[in-house]
Specification:
Helices cover about 50% and strands about 0% of the residues. The chain is mostly helical. It is elongated, with a radius of gyration of 14 Å.
């Protein structure tokens, strides 16, 4: 994931916000790297029969697909354009933790 020109600020804000919560920090790292419990990664590890999204059964279930591209889930609708990158990451962590 490319963080852009404000990479150091984003990392500092994430570290400051998440440092006291190991589970949320781990989830943030998994989202950023793509090494999380979604079918794209699980299929690479031979833990899932397919890399397709179980909701739409059309595209690969990647982080981007899960959080915003899947027509069936649309999990990013609650996040507004005025959020900072740090707030966005915290919102994403919260969303991915939902059942």
């Amino acid at each position: 994931m490319i963080l852009g020109k404000k990479q150091a600020t984003i990392r500092k804000n994430l570290n400051t916000t998440l440092i006291n919560n190991r589970k949320k920090y781990r989830t943030a790292v998994q989202l950023i790297t793509g090494h999380c419990g979604l079918n794209k990664y699980l299929h690479k590890m031979r833990k899932a029969p397919s890399s397709l999204c179980p909701k739409c059964d059309y595209e690969e279930e990647s982080v981007a697909h899960f959080l915003g591209q899947c027509q069936r889930t649309r999990r990013l609708e609650a996040i507004t354009s005025t959020d900072t990158i740090s707030q966005l990451m915290i919102s994403l962590i919260t969303l991915i933790s939902l059942p």
